[in-house]
Specification:
With 641 residues, this protein is an alpha+beta fold. It has helices at residues 2-11, 14-17, 19-30, 37-52, 56-72, 79-97, 100-117, 123-136, 140-157, 165-177, 181-192, 200-216, 220-236, 241-257, 261-278, 281-297, 301-310, 319-336, 339-446, 449-459, 465-485, 492-510, 537-548, 590-603, and strands at residues 489-491, 514-520, 530-532, 555-564, 567-574, 611-618, 624-633. A hairpin with a 2-residue loop joins strand 4 and strand 5. Helix 13 (220-236) runs antiparallel to helix 14, helix 18 (319-336) runs antiparallel to helix 19 and helix 21 crosses helix 22 (492-510). The radius of gyration is 47 Å and the shape is elongated.
């Protein structure tokens, strides 16, 4: 259903602009959906598109299939929304065919099903349809009531003003029929503000109805101006065929009233074939009425007689249309010399005028009464809501006061706790600093490294060149080791220099079968990139001590550094048979503990963490070895806060 709603929202604007494209897209989607509730929702959308193309038979077929599914699935709560769509479409179809009482019944059923189904978002649209139907049946008070209900639903649902223009031009139509042209123009002016936001068929409704308002005021030039705008609009959209011919019919009558007989004949002939093809009884009655008067104004009484004999007579004729027909019949019988019947239609029109005037007064009174009741009800609701809001406001104030006290107490407790914790932390750090200082002073007092280095340098003068070289490397290693113990992080160049010095000292023990492979990515600047000290040296020492010294055959050690996405990857790998839990050369693991503790300390101050892994791998020669891998994230902060 969510997919259907998103699809409906994407094509609803295209229903009037390009309904055939909507038909094609909807049929394609229906082919992927089985016989289900969603399938028939697509079918009702297809019926709407057919209605806009004036393909009434296809629209009716779609509605009948959807209704049959509703009857089969009446027990489902979710079927109410589909029922509402079906009845709403039937109401529109009946309204177009002039079967107005049936359309009212269908719109009421659509409204009830929408309320039962819980989908209230479309209640304004159904209310507008129901109001339109009541207006067309002459129940202007009920029409105004449902228009105002639509406005009330728009307020409740938070519908923007830009979507309320159908209500505005609907109320304008009501006041036009009640001949309150001041109120009529007020609502038409409200609707006109949002003309550019209207769909083409809505623009036609606005222009056509506003043209009718000038027609009733007998301001035929202004009415003609509105009808011409409507005709230009409908000609720009091929799918507004019904609207186009309806406008031509209105223009034909307007020209007839202005005694422009040729123009009237032209426009009435343009729309005649269309209304006969769709069998719209109301439109045909209206058309035949104009054709009778046209023949009389052309001086062809015989043609007028023939058209009168062939004219259709619907079951229900609006009083306004009957009044126009009677006026033209009075003219016809006066032309034929039958003054008795001419007088009859004159008297009949006077009766209709009196009845219509009385009905308008009654409707206006009923409309004012309904408006007063509605306004009174709304006022009572607003007063009730205001009282409840005041009660809620008092409760909220009490709640906020209680919450403020609680928050204040909680803040005080947290402050005391944090203060005491900070004091304890400071005391602990001071004690640790004192212990460390004492230990360092104790070490310095026991042994002076510089004293040892001076003795070793003096003794190296007694050794051979080879022995002296080894001793110098040892002294360098010891000096560098002392320096590194004082630094948390070093550059990669410094770390590699230390590692190379260490390996040079161990080469004699490793023998000629030892091979070192060093691979460094050219994109890495060794003098700028830093890492925790001993990060490479400790894995190298472990590889030499626990894997390669006791290995038979070739002894290989790989040190690799390469750029990766978001950091640098360092790997130390050997071919010493891999890590074994039961090995006799496990050692104390002090070196790895130092690495892991250092990393844990640094990671606590960084969002992205250094990742370390130790695993057994197969080397290029097919031998098993141990690989130490570490990933240093880009932008890592090595400063402890």
């Amino acid at each position: 259903m969510d997919l259907y709603k998103r699809y409906y929202a994407s094509v609803v604007d295209s229903l009037s602009n390009n309904p055939r494209q909507v038909c094609t897209k909807t049929l394609r989607r229906m082919s992927t959906v089985g016989d289900s509730l969603i399938y028939y929702h697509y079918m009702t959308l297809l019926a709407k598109a057919y209605m806009f193309t004036s393909d009434v038979d296809s629209a009716l077929w779609c509605m009948e299939r959807a209704e049959a599914f509703c009857i089969r699935s009446a027990a489902l709560l979710s079927v109410h929304s589909l029922y509402a769509e079906v009845y709403n479409m039937r109401g529109n179809l009946y309204a177009r065919q002039g079967r107005l009482d049936s359309s009212v019944v269908c719109f009421h059923r659509a409204f009830d099903h929408r309320c039962a189904g819980g989908d209230k978002d479309v209640l304004p649209d159904i209310s507008i349809n129901l109001a339109d139907a009541y207006v067309r049946t002459g129940h202007y008070d009920k029409g105004a009531m449902w228009y105002r209900k639509a406005l009330s639903y728009c307020d409740s649902l938070g519908v923007s003003d830009r979507r309320r223009f159908p209500v505005y031009y609907g109320l304008a139509t009501v006041y036009m029929q009640l001949r309150d042209f001041e109120a009529c123009d007020y609502y038409y002016d409200l609707a006109e503000r949002y003309y550019d936001d209207m769909q083409p068929y809505e623009q036609h409704i606005y222009l056509n109805n506003r043209g009718n308002s000038y027609y009733f005021r007998e301001d035929y030039p202004m009415a003609l101006e509105m009808f011409r705008k409507s005709l230009r609009l409908s000609c720009a959209y091929p799918d507004l065929e019904f609207e186009k011919h309806l406008t031509e019919l209105n223009m034909g009558e307007t020209f007839l009233l202005m005694n422009c007989v040729d123009s009237a004949a032209c426009y009435l002939s343009l729309c005649s074939d269309f209304f006969h093809s769709i069998g719209n009884q109301t439109a045909l009655y209206y058309l035949d009425t104009q054709l009778i008067e046209l023949a009389l104004k052309q001086g062809d009484v015989g043609l007028a007689r023939r058209r009168l004999q062939e004219a259709v007579t619907p079951e229900y004729v609006e009083p306004g249309m009957r009044h126009i027909r009677n006026r033209y019949l009075q003219h016809y019988f006066a032309e034929t010399g039958d003054f008795k019947r001419a007088y009859y239609y004159q008297v009949e029109n006077q009766r209709i005028d009196d009845s219509t005037r009385n009905e308008r007064i009654r409707m206006r009174t009923a409309e004012i009464d309904l408006k007063y009741k509605q306004d009174t009800t709304l006022m009572k609701q607003k007063i009730f809501i205001q009282q409840k809001e005041n009660e809620v406001l008092v409760l909220n104030q009490m709640l906020y006061a209680g919450l403020f006290v609680c928050v204040l107490v909680l803040a005080l407790v947290i402050f005391i706790y944090v203060y005491q914790k900070k004091q304890r932390s400071l005391l602990w750090m001071k004690s640790q600093s004192m212990i460390t200082a004492l230990r360092m002073e104790n070490i310095r007092n026991r042994v002076s490294p510089h004293f040892i280095f001076n003795i070793l340098n003096r003794e190296m003068g007694k050794y051979t060149e080879e022995q002296a070289g080894n001793m110098r490397r040892l002294v360098k290693l010891m000096r560098r080791n002392l320096e590194l113990t004082e630094q948390l992080c070093v550059t990669m160049a410094e770390e590699l220099d230390f590692v190379n010095t260490f390996i040079d000292l161990e080469r004699k023990a490793l023998g000629d079968r030892f091979v070192l492979h060093v691979g460094i990515d050219s994109a890495i600047d060794l003098n700028r990139e830093i890492l925790p000290s001993m990060m490479i040296q400790i894995p190298v020492e472990n590889a030499l001590k626990h894997a390669l010294l006791a290995k038979e055959g070739m002894r290989r050690l790989w040190i690799e550094m390469r750029k990766t996405e978001g950091g640098i990857c360092i790997k130390v790998r050997d071919n010493g048979g891999g890590y074994k839990v039961s090995s006799n050369f496990q050692g104390t693991s002090t070196g790895m503990k130092v690495i892991l503790q250092t990393i844990q300390l640094l990671n606590a101050h960084n969002r992205r963490h250094i990742d370390v892994s130790v695993s057994n791998v197969v080397t290029e020669d097919g031998e098993t070895g141990c690989e130490f891998a570490v990933i240093l994230p880009e932008g890592y902060d090595y400063n402890l806060k």
